[in-house]
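Form 7-S
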Amino acid sequence: MPTENTDQFVNRVDNELFDGVIDNIDAWTDRMQAVSSPQRLSLVFTVYKYEHITQNTLKSIATSLDEDTFTDSIDTLLNYNFIARRTTTTVGNGEHTVYYRITEIGRDIIDYIIMTKGEESIHEYYNTKTDESLPQI
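Output:
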């Protein structure tokens, strides 16, 4: 049986798994590295929990992150499509409000983590878990 080198092996798996349809193995592994930071995964979960949240509220929850870490983490999560950003402007005073929302891939990664904990469903998770300390929006 002929042996394949590492590049051939990775290319074979890339073709089998992704088939060039929506991603490739390099983009996927980069994306997983982007969410491998505890701070970034915590931000994704917080946005997931609220579905959409203002930047100020998210900062008030993530108080342990300094401004640079918060900004770098958010930029990485936006770049890899775990969250999305929207800015609104208040008519009259021109004040801007930045909102973050969970994306499909962000939701999928958190759903996977919740389900691997052995919860029967996402609904069961939310029916049994409450966090009164988080500000409500």
